[in-house]
Amino acid sequence: MRIAVVGTGYVGLVTGTCLAETGNNVICVDINEQKVAQMQQAIVPFYEPDLEGIFKRNIAQGRLTFTSDLESAIDASTIVFLALPTPPNEDGSADLSYVLNTAENIGKCLKSFKIIVNKSTVPVGTADQVREMVARHSKHPFEVVSNPEFLREGVAVMDFMKPNRIIVGTHSEEVKKVFSELYAPYMRQGERLIFMDERSAELTKYAANAFLATKISFMNEISVLCEELGANVEMIRKGIGTDDRIGKQFLYAGIGYGGSCFPKDVQALSKTATDIDSKVNIVEAVIKTNTQQRERFFHKISDFFGGNLKGKRIALWGLAFKPETDDLREAPSLFLIDKFLAEGATVAAYDPVAMDSTRKQIGDRITYASNQYDALNGADALVIVTEWQAFRNPDFDIMAQKLTNKVIFDGRNLYDLNRMEERGFYYNSVGRKTILNK
Ligand SMILES: NC(=O)c1ccc[n+]([C@@H]2O[C@H](COP(=O)([O-])OP(=O)(O)OC[C@H]3O[C@@H](n4cnc5c(N)ncnc54)[C@H](O)[C@@H]3O)[C@@H](O)[C@H]2O)c1
Ligand SMILES: O=c1ccn([C@@H]2O[C@H](COP(=O)(O)OP(=O)(O)O[C@H]3O[C@H](CO)[C@@H](O)[C@H](O)[C@H]3O)[C@@H](O)[C@H]2O)c(=O)[nH]1
Description:
The protein has helices at residues 10-21, 33-40, 51-60, 70-75, 97-109, 126-137, 156-161, 173-183, 198-229, 233-241, 262-275, 281-304, 332-342, 355-362, 396-402, 417-423, and strands at residues 2-6, 25-29, 64-67, 79-82, 114-118, 142-146, 166-169, 193-196, 313-317, 346-350, 367-368, 381-384, 407-410, 426-428.
């Protein structure tokens, strides 16, 4: 099939590349000309494991091309995917300007029938708005489909190639046929392609993210109880996760969820409810707990130093909001950095891939270490923010030598408590007892 993908971020480029991989002809459009030039030279513009190989292969085979010219891409395609940003407005609602401006531009250049597919995360009713916008500028027939994306950064290619399910919101039988064919190569079992109306598809995406965020906030609340009551949240996780009705995933307590999706989508769902004079009590509690969780983590560190961080050197392991990405959107590291600096501490950070993106965003407000151990030189405490594999089994002897104090605050529960006790560290993690150094 001939496909255009508008927006080449984590979703758009993965979508375009993975659709090319199954034989489709894909042209990717981005407004950022520098990014387009990079992709035309077969350079992936961000870090996403497993993308580069299939990206290069499909470019070499002529099935994956790039342009900044929307009209030529629309002319060359029958299906047009929108994978555009929907960042939060100040009031928490989703900013639809990228999607609606593009819909307007598509309307203006429509010359024949197209299926316009929204892959961005958008509030209920956006498909209708896109339809109205295109129709305002075009007399040609078209369909608007809601096809929300569920991939996770860091495993995006696998998630796209082997999805748990694909949701397609459409009322058109013709579209159902086209999508059944388009997505057949990605289906392990036929029933994973779920057709529904557009509004339900739009809400399914928010419900999924809000539910996952709820699991996390729930466990974070339990972690607070664990700390107060002398229980171990990892035991609770195992204890409840083995119940199939609960499931093992997304039960990891930590420093609260971050990333480009959960914070904004949970907020947007709450705003949607407010706009219709409804109330989503659980969702609002999830947001509150998430904020409290990261603040609580900061206060534990501050309290350790008697409430005075002035002149303290903090080593930070991890900047990305999660491992295997360079994405910093709503990363807990940025929250902590702001707090540390505001309190007069200095920060030396190390992240295996997100140092360039951090430097672009916050410049030299912190120092960037060339490896994880150099970040520890003369530090009063190590704070672990992202659970990169390289942090899981570090050399504790080197750490002990480099740190001024053998003090670790671990927001990801990476280490065994007994081993930390043997090693003589002060070790403060989430929802577990604190190990006091000898
Ligand atoms: N990142 C994820 O893991 C993920 C997963 C599922 C859904 N989503 C949703 O998908 C959407 C896209 O997210 P993302 O993370 O890929 O965004 P992103 O910020 O990584 O990428 C967006 C891209 O769109 C481009 N763009 C902006 N305006 C444009 C225009 N007018 N024409 C062409 N290109 C334009 C930008 O230059 C950028 O390359 C959002 O709604 C997001 O909520 C994201
Ligand atoms: O048990 C857990 C699982 C995750 N997290 C945190 O939750 C956030 C989000 O993690 P994850 O879901 O792995 O990353 P994303 O790439 O943001 O993916 C989410 O957001 C995407 C955008 O909507 C969706 O497509 C995905 O299905 C959804 O998992 C991160 O800060 C994680 O540290 C926890 O704290 N505990």
